[in-house]
Amino acid sequence: HVQLVESGGGSVQAGGSLRLSCAVSKNRYYTIPYVAWFRQASGRWREGVAAIYLSTSGVFYSESVRGRFTISQDNGNMVYLQMNSLKPDDTGMYYCAATGIATTTPLLSVDYNFWGQGTQVTVS
Q: pLDDT value at position 1?
């Protein structure tokens, strides 16, 4: 029903910025209330860092990125993650994900059933 393609990862020095993009394509009859960004560092659990409720642009952030990252959308066709003041702890594979349900826990991966292939972010 839904295809997600991430881009924009790369290597950056601590304190720098990156902008990730997620291209969202779907069957027009299928509704996806939320799109989120998750990340996974080597040997660690997958962590939800930001989510956006597409109909209202309501946003949610993890405490680890609040104030530094900003999630936004372009009419639900593109979802972005602007990452500022990057730290080495932000290093990991970043995934865009979408869910077909109105989850009450938008930063938990369990409710997301569509995933992109991931894009690597390395902060040194």
A: 84
